[in-house]
């Protein structure tokens, strides 16, 4: 099936051809790299935050590239793009990758030797003058996958960053980052927390802090609720500022969600007003800040907690120029409420196969 047969109505989100795999992975890779560059250029993160934001995005890009190699010639399984407001791979795809790589040695022992496969390829191409069969290509892709992909770099449901000294001008002395892939929304989030520590040795609180973040801050929820949950569990930690970045939805031809911006792009693709490669990325930053303090608990077990500000919501859109015009024409009520005018990113241009 060629790219021109990609179905745009809300019926399916399964990639079921080599062309679709190449197209989808090229699109996600391109859009995320454009996003990273634009976020840095427009200073939506501090220089210190940007370092970690890039690292989390790199893990995401690495994982999606691993999916491309894994599924390229596999006739038995098809990769699924999420059907909620995401446009990214379903979380289970990341889980399958991680679990699959746990059995790397088992699979490698069953695969043909590389030199033997090379001989077969040369015989098929040079002597028989015939194309390589799909099952042989799948064997070759499997060898590349199992010998080159590292399990530790797969984007997991929760990814913990280290506690570091916050840069000058920050809200507090320390900063810790983490990222998670929300399993209900199927899209990635990146978080930063600035805090003070009232104890003597920071090392003594690290494991407890990491465990708290994994249990309390591993999914999307009201940010002040997350802040209160962290504050309540860590007696000697005083959070002052929490920042959460929501990457997505990724609005493109493979997205099958109910999002208004996605539908605007899909409708225009169907009408051939914009090319199949068209895309946009929503991007949200939520922040809360602590102010005064209050005490909670009984007479013998009182704990000092922070009072949190109202949540500061900032919504952004990244899109090529033509798509920005399109979205303004079709959805001015959404576009005019963005924290800043849409950020222009580059067009994706591909030579699409036509039949």
Characterization of this structure:
With 355 residues, the chain is an alpha+beta fold. The chain is 41% helix and 21% strand. The chain contains eleven helices and eight strands. The protein has helices at 18-41, 47-71, 91-102, 104-110, 114-127, 134-148, 203-216, 223-233, 260-270, 321-330, 332-335, and strands spanning 158-165, 174-182, 187-197, 237-251, 280-296, 303-308, 312-319, 343-344. Strands 1, 2, 3, 4, 5, 6, 7 and 8 form an eight-stranded mixed beta sheet that branches. A hairpin with a 4-residue loop joins strand 2 (174-182) and strand 3. Helix 1 packs antiparallel against helix 2 (47-71) and helix 7 runs antiparallel to helix 8 (223-233). The protein is globular and about 80 Å long.
Q: Uncertain regions: pLDDT < 50 for 5+ in a row?
A: 1-12
Order of helices and strands: HHHHHHEEEHHEHEEEHHE
Task: Report the major sheet.
Answer: 8 strands, mixed
Which structural class should the secondary elements be placed in?
alpha+beta
Radius of gyration: 23 Å
Q: Distance between termini? A: 9 Å
Strand tally, please? 8
Average of pLDDT: 84
Basic shape: globular
Give the percentage of residues in beta strands.
15-25%
Helical content (DSSP H or I, runs of 4+)? 40-55%
- As an assembly, this protein is single chain
List the helices and strands and how they pair.
Elements: H1 18-41, H2 47-71, H3 91-102, H4 104-110, H5 114-127, H6 134-148, E1 158-165, E2 174-182, E3 187-197, H7 203-216, H8 223-233, E4 237-251, H9 260-270, E5 280-296, E6 303-308, E7 312-319, H10 321-330, H11 332-335, E8 343-344
Parallel strand pairs: 7-8
Antiparallel strand pairs: 1-2, 2-3, 3-4, 4-5, 5-6, 5-7
Helix pairs in contact: 1-2, 2-6, 7-8, 9-10
